[in-house]
Amino acid sequence: MKFEGQDWFYSKKVKEHFLKPKNVLKNKSEIKNYNGYGKVGNMKCGDIMEMWIKIEKGIIKKCKWKTWGCASAIASTSMLSIIITEKGGMKINDALKITGKEITKRLGGLPQIKIHCSVLGDEALKEAIKDYESKNNL
Ligand code: FES
Q1: Residues with CB under 6 A from ligand 1
Q2: Which of 59, 66, 73, 109 has its CA 20 to 30 A from that of 8?
């Protein structure tokens, strides 16, 4: 394992989203406004991610999240929360197809060793959609 050079290069976008993450849940009282919840852990590092989504007519209108994870997980989930809510929101079926690769691309890349962190938000999102669907008998 190397800890130098390009292996630990963080893009400007990653730093931006790590330092000022978007859509972080700040107050537990906000939770009541959301209708899908997901919580997952990363088997590789033990970090945890929670996500709340608001779905209206099959479209993800809002997303909030909270993590006990690393800089890459924070930046990736911040970007994911933008991807699924931008331009009026994403259809559930399209959101289910989002991959860590796509998120990483929008961030301008991640160090190879941190790629696994980019899927934490993505997995929490899938759980939140599953929760929404089971609550609504879909
Ligand atoms: Fe755990 Fe990145 S090291 S999510």
Answers
A1: 42, 45, 47, 69-70, 72-73, 117, 120
A2: 66
Integer Cα distance of 103 and 125 in angstroms: 13
pLDDT at 4 over 60: no
Question: Looking at ligand 1, which atom is closest to the CA of residue 114?
Answer: 2
All domains in the chain, ordered by first residue? 8-135 (3.90.1010.10)
Q: Which residues are catalytic?
A: 45, 117
Taking CA atoms, 12 is separated from 16, 32, 71, in Å, by 6, 34, 13
Q: What is the pTM for the complete model shown?
A: 0.92
φ, ψ at 103 (rounded to 5°): -65, -45
One-letter identity of residue 129: I
Over residues 64-99, the pLDDT tens digits come to: 999 999 999 999 999 999 999 999 999 999 999 999
Structure tokens at 138: 């879909």
